[in-house]
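Q: Could you fold this chain for me?
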Amino acid sequence: AAAAAAAAASSDAFGKQYFPTTFDPAGYFWVGQVTPVVHYCMGGLEINDRAQVLSQQGAPIRSLYAAGEVSGGLHGANRLGGNSLAECVVFGRLAGQAAAAHVLPMATMQQQATGMDGMCAQQNVVATL
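A: Sure. Below is the predicted structure, expressed as structure tokens.
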């Protein structure tokens, strides 16, 4: 009866005018809970082409690199679907290479000066940054 009433109605209390799907109220229904989530975050820390985080004055901040959704500005006000993964991979690699290039020379100097194991020297340098 409800399906027939809906099909015969030209509009309802909410102003809906088209009812393309009819259903039997005595039939089976599946219900799912919809939860809002953040899909992609636009905006964040401003970075340069070497993934260095920039200060408010536009100068690179020493020893600070960013990639992925924590960084912003690459796509402007919106992004094309699928671009976020490419951004993460490209700038993640650049950030990793830049961070390693920043730390390894200092670790090598510390290792030579102290005779410290290479991994310990790297960890020690990173801890002091």
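A (continued): The CA atoms of residues 103 and 125 lie 7 Å apart.
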